[in-house]
Write a structure and sequence with these properties.
- The complex is a heterodimer of chains A (367) and B (404).
- Chain A has helices at 48-52, 60-65, 72-87, 93-121, 127-147, 167-192, 195-201, 209-214, 220-223, 231-234, 255-279, 331-336, 339-343, 348-358, 362-366; strands at 8-12, 24-30, 33-40, 156-157, 160-161, 298-306, 309-317, 325-329.
- Chain A has 367 residues and is an alpha+beta fold.
- In chain A, strand 2 and strand 3 (33-40) form a beta hairpin.
- Chain B is mainly α and 404 residues long.
- Chain B has 15 helices and no strands.
- Chain B has helices at residues 10-19, 44-81, 97-107, 118-135, 153-161, 164-174, 178-209, 214-219, 225-228, 230-243, 255-258, 268-293, 304-325, 331-359, 365-394.
- In chain B, helix 12 packs across helix 13 (304-325).
- Chain B is globular.
- The chains are: A alpha+beta (367), B mainly alpha (404).
- Chain A binds chain B through residues 7-8, 10, 16-18, 28, 30, 32-33, 35-36, 119-127, 130-131, 134, 194-200, 202-204, 344-350, 352, and chain B through 78, 81-84, 178-179, 182, 247-248, 250-251, 254-259, 323-333, 391, 394-397, 399-404.
């Protein structure tokens, strides 16, 4: 006699160890198999877009720090690029190089966090996480040298950066660039060939290229499906057209590819950083444009390749000191829209891993 | 009662100290030499009770102190594996950290969720910790130091330890929480499955020794059974770490998936008892493994009790090491591992051992080393072949499309 079974609905989150913040998913299970997911956002909504309308253009930079709080530098970068487009300001070269250095360091830091937490979601009791954070600490130390802060940085300004890097910074940066390839090898030794991780991630949570494009997914998640799209190559901003680096793509878009692509992107970022250190020349780091300025009436959109994907800021100006409208295209939020396609049919354990491999940041999802 | 007094046990020693007197005629349980007990004749039952309770108290408290030491060791070692310091503020080197933990747990509010089945919810932690303590009854801790040398010792251990599946399911089900229910369901599926290979891996040893008694198993080890039964050791350590819910098999309380599994809703000392039972289970399993595979208390120079402790903590260290290193398997992979990997291997091990015992009934030392060679070969070939098959099956799981 077959037993009568019925699906059960479980609220995963908002308080759950592996929702990377306060994300809630209503999951309907048949046993351990997921038959439906229903993401619920908004637990971390702070009204950043509305708050920005009450602040001057320079003050808004501090708001962008708090969007994706593990990659503040790229948020700053995208915002100041949008402002520069709006007010028609051009940053000096050294300033742009410093921005690129900061952004690429931030990319490494963010990918370290993503990798660490992905393996943590796989159940590895935080050991790889701690190893990843060991190197992230060094990057945060570098940031501290740049601007005095470690997480909420506010390093960039419209028309350049806040201040030039101190002499020590270059010494420590060079040492970091020498050490980091060995540390990345170490992660690969720990994770890439681990039989259990291969079993858990290979061929699980496959995302097709067409689904990803239809969901306007960007960043590592899109590239892991084999589609080569990187704004640093496709629409070079700052000085990215002067660097020689590869756009890393995955093979089939499974969880393993999404992990592997981040490891390889860290190596590419190191290549860019090495070239930056070689090319950077002395000069001013910021134009003399005032911090309180009134851009002409108009609108501007600027996007950068943030560690999570395409981060864009759309600013409308009415000629005042504050933006009239401030819209954030946050990659985490848009990447999360494919969650349903990704996880339905998987088991609970794989859903957590798939969710972790998208690498969302709730600060950016809820804004 | 008489069977408990056989052999040179702690229990018999205490009993005879109290109860042996002039009135006992002939060679009783206390022998010819010891004839002056503290109690008058006719009060043997009091001596029996005091000896039993006293030794049980001593044993349980000593064991719980060891568990405290072990939790400290686990936290410090995991800290080192994590590239951090670990607890070092409470007392010298942080040694009083377990005391601080216990005080914290005892002073916490003891919550029972509104939807819980109160009785079952409250019984579950007790039922979890009792089997761990019961195993102590048959463990030989050193030369002539055991509570009881019952002739079905290892069977008793296996029977008693399988009880915690019930406790986990009770805790998970009675909580009225869906994460806890997932934990309980996983516990039943996993623990019952892993019971089979664990029991079958012990059968090899029993065939060789010809006895189920823990003491005779230790005495029969001319070569440590870890060499003579490598495959059984591998199966036992994998299976028992699955039964203890330690990674890579910690699905029952998988933090990143189901919060804390079956003990999600427990707080205060009830939660503490689950933790105590889990840490205690590691020590007890290490002790059982020491007895079965690493020659028990035997060792040169140092006293036997110290040897036993050293070996137990050696195994405990290996378990901490595994826990700090490996990520978690998925539920279907865990079940595959039990039924398609460990189960056939344990049958092979049993078969090979049986044939060997049939051929060399009374093996000399040379023949014994020959057996070691054969078993090593069987273990390596078996593990390699099965892992090849298993890993090919393990990758790319079937994707089930369903609609409500």
């Amino acid at each position: 006699m077959p037993l009568k079974t019925e699906p059960i609905t479980v609220n995963i989150g908002p308080q759950h160890p592996s929702t990377h913040g306060v994300f809630r998913i209503r999951v309907t299970f048949d046993g351990e198999v997921i038959i439906d997911v229903d993401p619920v956002f908004g637990y971390l909504h702070r009204g950043s877009e509305k708050l920005a309308e009450e602040r001057t253009y320079t003050q808004v930079i501090t708001l962008t720090d708090r969007l994706d709080y593990v990659s503040s530098m790229t948020n700053n970068q995208a915002y100041v690029l949008a402002c520069e487009k709006l007010a028609d300001i051009k940053a000096p070269e050294r300033g742009m190089y410093l921005r690129v250095i900061a952004a690429e360091l931030q990319r490494i830091a963010s990918h370290l966090v993503a990798t660490g937490f992905l393996v943590n979601d796989l159940g590895a009791l935080a050991t790889p996480l701690m190893y990843c954070f060991r190197e992230r600490e060094k990057i945060l130390d570098l940031f501290e040298m740049l601007c005095g802060a470690r997480v909420t940085l506010t390093y960039m300004r419209v028309g350049g950066v806040f201040q030039d890097a101190p002499e020590d910074f270059w010494v420590f940066l060079k040492r970091f660039l020498e050490e980091m390839p060995f540390h990345i090898d170490e992660y690969e030794q720990l994770i890439s060939e681990n039989e259990i991780i291969l079993m858990r991630t290979k061929g699980v949570g496959i995302l097709s290229s067409s689904t990803a494009i239809n969901g306007s997914v960007s960043g590592p998640v899109l590239r892991s499906t084999g589609y080569s799209w990187d704004l640093r190559k496709a629409d070079p901003y700052e000085v990215y057209d002067r660097f020689d680096f590869d756009v890393v793509v995955g093979e089939q878009g499974d969880n393993y590819d999404r992990y592997k692509i981040r490891i390889n992107e860290m190596r590419q970022s190191l290549r860019i950083l090495n070239q930056c250190v070689e090319q950077i020349a002395p000069g001013p780091v910021r134009t003399n444009s005032p911090l309180l300025f009134r851009p002409p009436v108009g609108e501007a959109y600027a996007h950068v390749e943030s560690p999570k994907g395409e981060l864009g800021f759309y600013i409308v100006s009415d000629g005042g000191v504050a933006p009239y409208r401030f819209k954030i295209r946050s990659p985490s939020f848009i990447n999360l829209t494919i969650l349903r396609e990704l996880v339905v049919g998987l088991k609970l354990a794989d859903m957590i891993v798939a969710f972790g491999s998208i690498d969302v940041n709730m600060g950016e999802v809820d804004r | 009662m008489e069977s408990l007094l056989e052999g040179n046990s702690l229990f018999r020693w205490t009993y005879c100290l109290l109860a042996a007197n002039e009135g006992n005629s002939g060679p009783g349980p206390c022998g010819e030499t010891l004839r002056n007990g503290l109690l008058p004749a006719g009060f043997e039952w009091v001596a029996f009770l005091i000896a039993g309770l006293g030794i049980v108290m001593l044993l349980i408290n000593a064991f719980l102190l060891l568990v405290m030491l072990y939790t400290y060791m686990e936290r410090r070692l995991i800290g080192r594996f994590h590239n951090r310091v670990g607890p070092n503020r409470t007392g010298p080197f942080g040694l009083l950290q377990p005391v601080a933990d216990a005080i914290k747990l005892l002073t916490k509010e003891d919550l029972v969720p509104a939807g819980a089945d109160r009785l079952v919810f409250n019984i579950a932690p007790v039922l979890m910790i009792v089997p761990v303590l019961l195993v102590l009854a048959v463990l030989p801790f050193g030369e002539n130091s055991f509570l009881a040398n019952i002739n079905v010792g290892i069977l008793f251990v296996l029977a008693v330890t399988s009880m915690n599946a019930l406790a986990m399911f009770m805790g998970g089900w009675a909580s009225g929480n869906r994460f806890a229910m997932f934990g309980g369901m996983r516990a039943v599926a996993q623990l019952v499955s892993y019971e089979v290979p664990v029991v079958l891996s012990v059968v090899g040893i029993v065939i060789y020794t010809g006895s189920l008694s823990m003491v005779s198993i230790v005495e029969a080890q001319r070569i440590p059974f870890i060499l003579l039964q490598p495959l059984a050791f591998f199966i036992f350590i994998a299976g028992s770490s699955a039964e203890m819910n330690r990674s890579p098999f910690d699905l029952v309380e998988a933090e990143s998936e189901i919060v804390a599994g079956y003990h999600t809703e427990y707080s205060g000392m009830k939660f503490g008892m689950f933790q105590l039972a889990e840490f205690g289970a590691v020590l007890v399993t290490s002790a059982v493994m020491t007895t079965l595979f690493l020659d028990g208390w035997n060792g040169p120079v140092l006293p036997s009790h110290l040897w036993f402790l050293l070996k137990v903590f050696f195994f405990a260290f290996i378990m901490i090491w595994i826990r700090a290193t490996l990520p978690r398997l998925r539920m279907d992979q865990v079940m595959d591992f039990a039924w398609k990997f460990l189960f056939p291997l344990s049958i092979i091990n049993m078969f090979v051992t049986a044939v060997e015992v049939l051929v060399w009934n009374e093996p000399t030392l040379v023949q014994l080393w020959f057996m070691v060679g054969i078993n090593m070969l069987v273990a390596i070939v078996g593990v390699v072949v099965f892992s090849l098959i298993f890993s090919r099956k393990g990758i790319s799981p079937p994707r089930r499309k369903m609609s409500v």
